[in-house]
Amino acid sequence: MDNIIAIEAFAALSQSTRLETFRLLVRHEPDGLPAGEIARLLDVPHNTLSTHLGVLARAGLVVSRRHSRSVIYSASLERMRETLSFLVRDCCAGHPELCEPLLRELQPCCPTDEGDSA
């Protein structure tokens, strides 16, 4: 990921409704949500949401697929991973132990089977 792509992702997420939309879609992975359901859950008019989804899609943060008459939107977890990796790529100037608190903070969102047995 280069600076331009990262800036596009950050710009897309720098608006409240778009950030809420992206976070909602992350919570509904891997199934995604139809546009109408997103609008209902966030209490946003359909045409306004459509504009926001377009911005997120152009930044590569959401993808859509047609399912019957609905368009289902999903978060692009790959772009999220790329963006997070971009932020921490040069973390701690070669001292990975300094990044340990960050890594620990990310663990609760992605528990592993090994961590669940404790």
Automatic annotation (TrEMBL):
InterPro entries: ArsR-like_HTH, HTH_ArsR_DNA-bd_dom, Metal_resp_trans_reg, WH-like_DNA-bd_sf, WH_DNA-bd_sf. Keywords: DNA-binding, Transcription, Transcription regulation. Coiled coil: none annotated. Pfam families: HTH_20. Residues 1-95 form the HTH arsR-type domain. It comes from the Bacteria. NCBIfam families: HTH_metalloreg. This is Helix-turn-helix transcriptional regulator. It comes from Modicisalibacter zincidurans.
